[in-house]
């Protein structure tokens, strides 16, 4: 007789708080190299906040900037981590606001087409750890240059929020979601996705692909270009309509 043992993820995270550092991702990545795991590095301000695709992330006071340092084996399928991060942000924001938050592939969280959260995951496969970096605009002022495309919880609700409480809620939601099986996580992701069934332009390096998103899976975004369906796991996605 065989007993099927399902591994139960039991994680307690230590929170490391800072007033100002360069980037919570950089800090957490260095801790990872030292063998540390299950840490959440937070900072009120980041002087060199990192964004996806080598961009920077404007990190002024009032926002929530943090990085989760974990062992890859505690996540299982590595492709899950971005989905876990973004669904957990949506579900956390829903605890503080009744507005409709949606995910733009791969992991931007939007309110009415304006970005409220960005996620940057970095892996160190040799040492077996990952850093899930999350920036959420909470009470911070949105830089005038990105006002058209960015928003904050304060702007949406016309209220100031307790950033520490939002982080606490995120951890609770994230730990619950970590225990879900792969299909349930994907199901939640698709439910919150704004990109599913949209016409998009996807830019990867110099190449742009245009088509309709027919599915999203752990392999990436499935785009029907008219001739065939192509699957991409990286790129800059623009919703056309
Ligand atoms: C993006 O949308 O381009 C991703 C932005 C990720 C920003 C967060 S803020 C906390 C963590 N530390 C960083 O330097 N970047 C991530």
TrEMBL record:
CDD domains, A to Z: BPL
The organism's place on the tree of life at top rank: Archaea
Gene3D superfamilies: 2.30.30.100, Bira Bifunctional Protein, Domain 2
Cellular component GO terms held in the UniProt record: cytoplasm
GO molecular function, one term: biotin--[biotin carboxyl-carrier protein] ligase activity
One Pfam family cited in the UniProt record for this chain: BPL_LplA_LipB
Domain BPL/LPL catalytic: 14-182
Keywords associated with the record: Ligase
Transmembrane segment boundaries: none
Listed name of the protein: Biotin--acetyl-CoA-carboxylase ligase
């Amino acid at each position: 007789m065989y007993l099927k043992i399902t591994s139960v993820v039991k994680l307690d995270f230590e929170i490391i708080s800072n007033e100002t550092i360069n980037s919570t991702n950089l800090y957490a990545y260095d801790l990872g190299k030292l063998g540390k795991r299950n840490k959440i590095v937070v900072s009120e301000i980041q002087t060199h906040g990192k964004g996806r695709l080598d961009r920077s992330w404007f990190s002024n006071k009032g926002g929530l900037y943090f990085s989760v340092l974990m062992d890859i084996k505690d996540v299982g399928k590595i492709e899950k981590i971005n989905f876990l991060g973004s669904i957990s942000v949506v579900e956390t924001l829903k605890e503080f606001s009744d507005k409709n938050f949606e995910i733009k592939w791969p992991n931007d969280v939007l309110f009415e087409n304006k970005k409220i959260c960005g996620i940057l995951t970095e892996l160190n496969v040799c040492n077996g750890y990952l850093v899930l970096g999350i920036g959420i605009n909470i009470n911070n002022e949105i830089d005038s240059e990105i006002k058209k495309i960015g928003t904050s919880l304060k702007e949406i609700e016309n209220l100031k929020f307790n950033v520490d409480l939002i982080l606490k809620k995120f951890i609770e939601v994230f730990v619950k979601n970590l225990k879900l099986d792969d299909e349930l996580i994907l199901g939640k992701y698709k439910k919150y996705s704004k990109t599913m069934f949209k016409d998009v332009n996807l830019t990867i390096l110099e190449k742009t692909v245009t088509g309709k998103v027919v599915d999203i899976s752990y392999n990436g975004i499935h785009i029907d270009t008219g001739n065939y369906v192509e699957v991409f796991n990286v790129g800059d996605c623009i919703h056309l309509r």
